Amino acid sequence: MGSHQLEDYRQQFEQIKKEAQALTAGLDEAQFNWRPAPNEWSIEECLGHLTMVGHWEIRAIEKAVDEARAKGITGAGPFTYGPIERYILGMTKPPVRQKLPAPKRFTPLHQQPITGVLPTFLHVHSQFQHQIDRSAGLDLVRVKVPTPITRFVRLSLGATFAQAALHGLRHIEQAKRVRAKLR
Predict the structure, then answer these.
(1) What single string gives the DSSP state of each residue in 9-59?
(2) pLDDT value at position 1?
(3) What is the pLDDT of residues 149-180, one digit of tens each?
């Protein structure tokens, strides 16, 4: 059923929050902001990027859910996604097979404090969970959500949740590699 898919997405966002907390536990500001190389992101930048993209996605999801509720676009799963959505999800899923540059508007600032980045990151991921709760009973395929990358592509609501969670896992894995290199 669709509710099982939503619960899976909810659990993925919960796991991302737990991993971010474990990843940052015991770090000082210098470690949080340390870059393994000049062209590589710090843990701070990985979480900052996810926060920036997440803010954008939450607003788009909230609007799509509101519109779907007003139009009565309901459905029961299980929901399956089309080939383009499956391709996008496959490209997003860790491990990284192809590095994709972040759009300039989603390039995080560097040297931000852990006390600002982590709580905001956790809040954004709690907002994803809130939108998942609000999506119960909606048709996760027929409800469409714009993407943050281009206005020409809209994903289904379910694929949007899946992609956001995979994007989170992708950058959590990146941040784990940075943490492993810390001296």
Answers:
(1) HHHHHHHHHHHHHHHHTT--HHHHH--SSTTS--HHHHHHHHHHHHHHHHH
(2) 41
(3) 777 889 999 999 999 999 999 999 999 999 99
Give backbone dihedrals phi and psi of 156, rounded to 5 degrees, phi first: -65, 160
Distance CA(179)–CA(183), nearest Å, equals 9
- Residue predicted with more confidence, 149 or 22: 22
Cα separation, 109 vs 96, whole angstroms: 23
Neighbour tally for 180: CB within 10 Å:
8
Q: pLDDT tens-digit profile of 26-43? A: 999 999 999 999 999 999
Is domain 2-181 classified as CATH 1.20.120.450?
yes
Which residue in the block uniquely carries the two structure tokens 């992708």? 170
Tell whether the torsion through CA atoms of 89, 92, 98 and 99 is positive or negative: positive
